Amino acid sequence: MFPLGFFVVMTSTSRQHALIIGGSIGGMTAAKALAPHFERITIVERDPLSDRAEPRRGVPQGVQPHGLLPRGRTELERMFPGLMKAVKAEGAFEFDGSAELARFTSRGWAPRHDNLGVSALACTRPLLETTMRRLLREQSPNVRIVDGTRFNGFTYTKLGDEVIVTGAKTDAKDPALQELSADLVIDATGRGTKSYKWMDEVGLPAPREVRVDAKCNYATRHYRAPAEAKHWWWRSLLIDSAPPDHARAVSILTVEGGRWIVTAIGTNGDYAPTDEAGWLAYIRSARAPIVADLLERAEPLTDVVQNRTTINIWRRMHEYEAKLSGLLLMGDGVCCFNPNYGQGLTSSALAARSLSERIAQHQGPLDYHFMAAHYDSQARWLEEGWSYSTTLDLRWPKAEGEKPAFYGFMRWCAGLLESVAIHDPILLRKLLPLLDFGANRLSIITPSFLGRFYFGLFRNIVAPRKLLAAAELDVFAKAPQRPTLAADVAVE
Ligand SMILES: Cc1cc2nc3c(=O)[nH]c(=O)nc-3n(C[C@H](O)[C@H](O)[C@H](O)COP(=O)(O)OP(=O)(O)OC[C@H]3O[C@@H](n4cnc5c(N)ncnc54)[C@H](O)[C@@H]3O)c2cc1C
Question: Which pLDDT does position 4 carry in this prediction?
Fold first, then answer.
């Protein structure tokens, strides 16, 4: 005889209530994915949330610069229709990610390509997040956000060797919110998720975890940009590091309100200090001193704030064999990246899209088979982004992590490709999907790709093209009249 609970739990295909823990990008994109499929969705967020676009405690990376990759932008716009227009109405703007980017690479100033067609969004992370939250409230009335409320643990039941999460406990003052039952619980509490510890407590194994740590640190200060900066030709300026010897990169990103986000990115354990004099000296010691010179014209608005949560960590839930039903991990809690490559927001958006497609086709219970199928399809595109960021991070001598087979040869090939592609917008455009989870490494190697590459290589040998040295680029030159690249994101 089976206990009654067996039938209640096992036969439940109900889609009445989904509970999402964490109201940041992972939580909100998950809510958008689930909204058409559940009667009610509750997001429980620890921080009190305001409509003002300002950093908050639970998202300390909010003060740091956030770039959005093209695919992430397309997906966020698809999920939150009108998002780009709404952030632009608050002062965010688009710029040409090649022509209006001054980038001092390890080879010299990168050539600017007018026709690359990469439109970048200049926007603070809090502005993006508060705008998404406003649109979520407006567009999905079945989503309720309970803020200022901490998740305190799952409620669950055991059925043989299967653990079924049935809801969560919170510290809400309202007794009705202290224990919430749900047909599906999403953990979107970010890279610090406690779910893996909880698995151990209930006797489940933890998933295998892979880490690559390039010992990278962000140290950021916000400035009011000098008034004349709006006439200069660039909107973002980046002095690259150059492994293995020069671990200091610095960047300026212009954002809404005429502000600059200025960041010292120290890798290989070479971290920028956070006191003003030390930080400025670090900025000046980058491979070109131009950012330090520019800061003499700008007005500091904040202290220096650092962030060291930059380790690439992949909890390989797609290999997980234990029977855990009712709970799905999303966002940074499954896979987080060194932010240097700007992949986190995009991977959250893509995971939500894949969840929405899967749940739309699925009639059965939200059991461990469903979760496994989701993690499995997610792993296929995560693999490419993971390989991109970790392969680059492993160039640093002090990086910790396992190098893939033939790493030295792969890096040598990649170096040759970079030396050719930097001059060729068509090759660059073909390479871009590798960064934003859009293509498989092998799939981009077509006869036309190889033809362009070999031609470029040959050209580099017979007529080498020298890039401008640090002092040769005029960063104070006025902007030519450029046509707008892309007005709004096209959603097919
Ligand atoms: C320095 C830095 C720079 C970055 N730059 C970029 C970039 O340029 N481009 C890019 O795409 N990505 C970037 N990222 C990554 C990006 O910030 C993350 O990928 C993204 O925020 C992931 O969102 P998430 O929702 O998974 O987690 P998080 O944003 O970490 O959010 C977790 C949420 O859960 C809440 N929470 C936690 N515990 C509880 C609890 N017990 N109860 C209730 N709520 C809880 C928190 O308050 C928070 O709101 C950067 C990250 C860092 C650290």
Answer: 40
Q: Select the CATH number that applies to the domain covering 4-60+127-210+312-390 from these four: 3.40.1190.10, 3.50.50.60, 2.30.30.370, 3.40.640.10.
A: 3.50.50.60
By CB atoms closer than 10 A (0-12, 13-18, 19+), residue 274 is middle
Cβ distance 127 to 222 under 8 Å? no
Q: Which of 21, 59, 304 to mutate to test the pocket of ligand 1 (most atoms within 8 A of CB)?
A: 59
Tokens of 231: 């006439």
DSSP 466: P
| Ligand 1 near 59 CB (within 6 A) | yes
Is residue 439 over pLDDT 50? yes
> Looking at the whole model, is its pTM more than 0.85?
yes
Atom of ligand 1 nearest to the CA of 333: 26
CA angle 177, 180, 185 (to 5 degrees): 130
Task: Indicate the SS3 state at residue 242.
Answer: strand
| Continuous segment of H or E residues that includes residue 250 | strand 248-255
Q: How confident is the model at residue 159 (pLDDT cuts 50, 70, 90)?
A: very high
Which segments of 263-403 does DSSP mark as H helices, in order? 276-284, 290-295, 344-361, 368-393
Local confidence band at 434 (pLDDT 50, 70, 90 cut-offs):
confident
Q: Which residue has the higher pLDDT, 11 or 364?
A: 364
C-alpha torsion 191→195→200→206, nearest 10: -60
What's the rounded mean pLDDT across residues 372-380? 95
**Where along the chain do its domains lie?**
4-60+127-210+312-390, 67-81+90-123+217-307+404-492
Average pLDDT over residues 295-305: 97
Which residue's CA is the nearest one to ligand 1's atom 19? 344
Angle between helices 368-393 and 344-361 (to 10 degrees): 160
Side-chain half-sphere CA neighbours of 257 within 13 A: 13
Q: Which of 70, 61, 65 is nearest to 25 (CA)?
A: 61
- Does ligand 1 lie within 6 Å of residue 367's CB atom? no
Average pLDDT over residues 482-491: 44
CA distance 390 to 401: 9
In this structure, how many other beta carbons lie within 10 angstroms of the beta carbon of residue 67? 22
- Per DSSP, helices labelled H in 173-241 are 195-201
* Residue 66 Cα: closest atom of ligand 1: 8
Average pLDDT over residues 312-330: 96
**CATH class for domain 67-81+90-123+217-307+404-492?**
alpha beta
Picking from 378, 492, 359, 433, the residue whose alpha carbon sits closest to that of residue 78 is 492
Q: pLDDT by residue (tens digit) across 46-76? A: 999 999 999 999 999 999 999 999 899 999 9
